[in-house]
Amino acid sequence: MSETETTPTIQLPDPAELIVSNSPHIRDNHNIKKIMFTVVLSLLPACLAGIWFFGFAALKVLLLTTVSCVVLEEGWNKLAKKPSTWKDGSAMVTGILLGMNLNAGVPWWVCVLGAVLAIILAKQLFGGLGYNPFNPALVARVGLLIGLPEIMTTWNVPTAGKMMADVTTAATPLGEGVKNGVFSLGDLFAGNVGGCIGETSVVALLVGGALLLYFKLIKWQIPVAYIGSVFAITGVAYLIHPETMHSPVYHVLSGGLLLGAFFMATDMVTSPMTHKGMLIFGLGCGVMTSAIRLWGAYPEGVSFSILFMNALTPLIDRSTISKPFGYVTPGKGGAE
Amino acid sequence: MNIALIAIVAAGVLGAVLGIIIGIVAKAFAVEVDERVEGVEERLPGANCGGCGFAGCADFAKAVVEGRAQPGGCPVAAPEAVADIAGYLGIAAEEKEKRVALVRCSGDCANTVRSLYNGVRDCRSAVLVAGGAKGCDYGCLGFGSCADACPFGAIEIRDGLAVVHPELCVGCENCVAACPKNLIIMVPATAEVHVYCNSPEKGAAKRKVCKTACIACRKCVKASGEEDHMLVDGFLVKTNYENPPPPELVEASACPTSALRLASKHVAGGYGGASK
Amino acid sequence: MSNQTRKFKGGVHPNDSKALSKDKPIQDAPLLESYKVIMHQNIGAPPELVVKKGDVVKKGDLLAKAGGFVSVPLHAPTSGTIKMIDKCPGPTGMSVPSIEITADGEDEWGAPFVPMSDWKNTEPKMLKQRVWDAGIVGMGGAGFPAHVKLSPPEGKTIDTLILNGAECEPYLTADHRLMLEQAEDVALGAAIIARILGLETAVIGVENNKPDAIQALEKVAGKYGVTVQGLPVNYPQGAEKQLIYAITGREVPIGKLPMDVHCVVQNVASAVAIADAVVKGRPSIERITTITGKSVVNPGNWRLRLGTPVEKALEFVGGVNEQPAKLLLGGPMMGIAQSSLGVTVMKNTSGILLISRDEVSQYSSDPCIRCGRCVEVCPMSILPATISQAVENKRFDWAEELNVMACIECGSCSYVCPSRRPLNQHFKRAKIEIQAELRKKK
Questions:
Q1: What is the tens place of the pLDDT at every residue in A190-239?
Q2: Residue B9 reports pLDDT greater than 70
Q3: In a domain, B53, yes or no
Q4: Which residue in B has a C-alpha nearest to residue A14's C-alpha?
Q5: Is residue C105 within 8 Å of C112, Cβ to Cβ?
Q6: What domain range is C162 assigned to?
Q7: How many whole angstroms separate alpha carbon B117 and alpha carbon B119?
Q8: For residue A239, how many other CB atoms are within 10 A of its CB?
Q9: Is residue C354 part of a domain?
Q10: Same structural domain, B191 and B74
Q11: What is the CATH number of the domain that holds B40?
């Protein structure tokens, strides 16, 4: 027998090609891109509902905001000589959310202006993804609402299924007093009411919210605390003044509450990380929203309240740090 | 008109009242400051580098006035500034030799074996993973912890190696503490010849991982003849900074690995990449 | 003893990949021509050399004696001549002192210890001395001298002995095979340790993904008065603090030791080493190591002598099919990456693992998106995301306030981070800086 037959050549790793790094050396398959595209998927039902009710005008707005956000993000990266980030999908999510927060009849330049506010002012000037203290889409919406109140509060009449219908203006459920509150709960559920593109269809928003919960991208704490507190506070108000107040169910189903509670308040970057913090955050949003709706000058307060609570997020996170495993209160001694 | 008037008067009264309160508080709670402290502080460079060991220039100025520190204790101040402070306080200025930082390594990317490292780009974090993933256990990791610590921008990371620009270095020693490999020492600014290696390993082991390691061949020791310009320490030769060699020594000793270098040429990148 | 098991908060469920080697019986490695025994294999003081170049030693002879109480002696893995006392690549990437032995091929035992077959009537003190003399350390990974754990200081009472057979690290099956094939030795070791501690019984904790090992242990458990407890499959179930919580419900306070909650935890491999030392009179000179990975030709569990170079160990398993991305000593979650094949097997080398390119974790410096996944999985309930940001800003005082010192470096947070942030490395850094600051104050 020859030498080669008895000892087959054994291939060993080449040490020069071995990577050294700290442990752990394996990871699960989650990444930012996957998270963002799952969010996009969860937003689709509400977008489709918006397009169904407001026609091609809604599709135009959504496409315009999304494309503007992605182009601005990449343009900024080019100018600032930062690595490309548009592929991670975060700008896309911001764009879609921004579109959903506009009404279908806005002119094209409002979409672009909104994208500038969201991507440049609210996100990149703070350092990009992860560093923005406020939800970019909401900053844009509030910026536009304050700067262009006429355009931002002219709502389209839903024209379910008629894609090419002329745009006519209408009232929103919360914009009208109780006497004129003509919307049935059924219409609210389906989304057959005036309002922003993405906020009207309760069914579609619930489907999207369920998807987010299923993929574990949001926790139940914020939506439940938010919606629950709005329900409770407006419920008390309704019990006291049933003749001048909307019912709590009407409050929950109308306006941007569900969109805000499931998709905006739960934005990872701008909401607390601890469970207790999430509850406080949702509660704070609910109290603010109810207060603005019941007593404020604006008919709707979801955007303002979420932005306000965004500002409190670091504080909430700091004050709700959970007790570490095996934590001993200083001065209390050992485990006995 | 009436409303405007009321507003103006109210604001005026409020301003006056608050102003008076501030005035009283400022008088009542005034902190006595030795004016000489401010005088000394004005004459200091104001870099707040902490190189003196005190918490910034103001603290150092206080220490000087109280006699707990010498004006020369400021590593940044030029001799003229030190003399100025001493003259201002009427005390004698100590003569002080200017010292600059020296990174005792010449192992840039071209010269030294490295592993593929993946992790935090910071020397003090990298050193926790496989010692920093450099073939040589003692070499510069090149992630720039020293450069980050330098308030004067005197350290450049060039091709994975920290290089001190002596003309910018003021000798605050912040980098000395920042280096996890303890590679940085303070040397007299006048010394021109340094051994750019700090590995105590045997010559053969060093050569395996680095082309520009000191292999302790002692050519430089022989070239300096009777003078003890160079000291041998195990498998490493060191410059004797008590009696620094003249620049000509580098030429004369023909260091086979070019670990022995002229500071000016090293900083200017004159030794390039690999040597023979 | 009640078998109520508690589930600790957090944890992750990586693909365990144990199928590669869990059905491979333990094989004895062939005798090599030379061994490079790394001197300092234990936590604590390094041992002091007692041999010199050219000395002839027999298998099991003393190479170095303990350098203090928290230190253990080192013994020759085979008979032969001391060729060199020099440096070799160490597990942390730095060169470390080592003793090179050229084997004479006889593999002849010296006469290190007298077997204590009547251990039931031997003084606990003598048994403990034997554990120390045999150089036994925690073989699960840490390498903490076993006799130190068995010596609770005055005033600390021990009421529970736990043997750690969780083996929660993916890929590793060494403890699994050991419990299956040498169940009796595991139980015997447990009984001996219990006697040293003055206890009647011991609990062997095994993750429920090893039903055959649990069954094998239960068969012999009664004979030695020990019990076996199945544990939920959840990484890091084998971490000392999590294991104690699962079995006793006690929380070890941050910065304290298991003995502060009256517990002693020993790895099952250490228990077998203790049984061998007492009953057979053998020092700790070999261990079971899983050599595995997707690129390994023939993964398996091997009985390797101390000082076996990784290069040779990889030859035992037929080498690799393709170039792996990483070579690890230990498991994929807490193992140490190597850049050299010259590093050798130590008392705590539970695995030699090759990680393939398709599964390797590549770190980046992407920003945290505050998704909170790390907070969910942290078994110590600290805030990895916030701490890592404090460390990036070099605010180690904040990191300390946020309880970074409680971190057990299990790596669960880095495992789930969608931004692939090197969280664990940040925490290691923070701990070292905080300890340095503490020393400075003293």
A1: 777 888 888 888 999 999 999 999 999 999 999 999 999 999 999 999 99
A2: yes
A3: yes
A4: B115
A5: no
A6: 119-280
A7: 6
A8: 11
A9: no
A10: no
A11: 1.10.15.40
Taking only the tens place, the pLDDT of each residue in A32-70 is 899 999 999 999 999 999 998 888 889 999 999 999 999
Name the closest residue on chain C to residue B115, using Cα atoms: C339
CATH fold for domain A32-318: Ammonium transporter fold (1.10.3430)
Q: List the single best residue of B128, B202, B235 to mutate versus C (max C Cβ within 10 A).
A: B128
pLDDT at position A1, please? 41
Please check whether residue B82 lies inside any domain of the structure: yes
Q: Are residues B193 and B84 in the same domain?
A: no
Are B203 and B82 members of one domain?
no
* Domain co-membership, B66 together with B155: no
- pTM value is 0.87
Tell me which of C241, C256, C280 is where a domain ends. C280
Q: How many CB pairs under 8 A join A and C?
A: 194
* B186 falls within a domain: yes
> 3-class secondary structure for chain C?
CCCCCCCCCCCECCCCCHHHCCCCCEEECCCCCEEEEECCCCCCCCCEECCCCCCEECECCEEEECCCCCCCCEECCCCEEEEEEEEEECCCCCEEEEEEEEECCCCCECCCCCCCCCHHHCCHHHHHHHHHHCCCECCCCCCCEHHHHCCCCCCCCCCEEEEEECCCCCCCCHHHHHHHHCHHHHHHHHHHHHHHHCCCCEEEEEECCCHHHHHHHHHHHHHHCEEEEEECCCECCCCHHHHHHHHHCCCCCCCCCHHHHCEEEEEHHHHHHHHHHHHHCCCCCEEEEEEEECCECCCEEEEEECCCEHHHHHHHCCCECCCCCEEEECCCCCCEEECCCCCECCCCCCEEEEECCCCECCCCCCCCCCCCHHHHHCCCCCCHHHHHHHHHCCCHHHHHHCCHHHCCCCCHHHHHCCCCCCHHHHHHHHHHHHHHHHHHHC
Q: What CATH number is associated with residue C199?
A: 3.40.50.11540
CA dihedral sign of residues B10, B11, B17, B20: negative
Nearest to C337 among A12, A20, A34 (CB): A20
Per-residue confidence band for A4, with pLDDT thresholds at 50, 70 and 90: very low
pLDDT digits (tens, 9 = 90+) for C372-425: 999 999 999 999 999 999 999 999 999 999 999 999 999 999 999 999 999 999
Q: Indicate if B247 and B148 belong to the same structural domain.
A: yes
Give the mutation candidate from B114, B115, B122 for the A interface (greatest A CB count, under 10 A). B115
pLDDT digits (tens, 9 = 90+) for C92-113: 888 899 999 999 998 888 877 8
| Shortest Cα distance, chain C CAs vs residue A11, angstroms | 5
Structural domain count of chain C: 2
* B141 neighbourhood in chain A, CB within 8 Å: none
In this complex, which of C337, C339, C425 lies closest to B125 when CB atoms are compared? C425
Say if residue B66's pLDDT is above 80: yes
Residue C188 has pLDDT above 90, yes or no: yes
pLDDT at residue B275 in the model: 39
- Out of C214-218, C365-369, C378-382, which region has the weakest mean confidence (pLDDT)? C365-369
ipTM of predicted assembly, 2 dp: 0.87
Domain count along chain B: 2
B117–A19 C-beta distance less than 8 A: yes
CB-nearest to C381 from A11, A25, A324 is A324
Give residue B130's domain range.
Answer: 99-267
Closest chain C residue to B129 measured between Cα atoms?
C92
Of C280, C308, C338, the residue that ends a domain is C280
- A85 pLDDT exceeds 90? no
Q: Which of A12, A34, A321 is the closest to C320 by Cβ? A: A12
Q: Are residues C276 and C416 in the same domain?
A: no
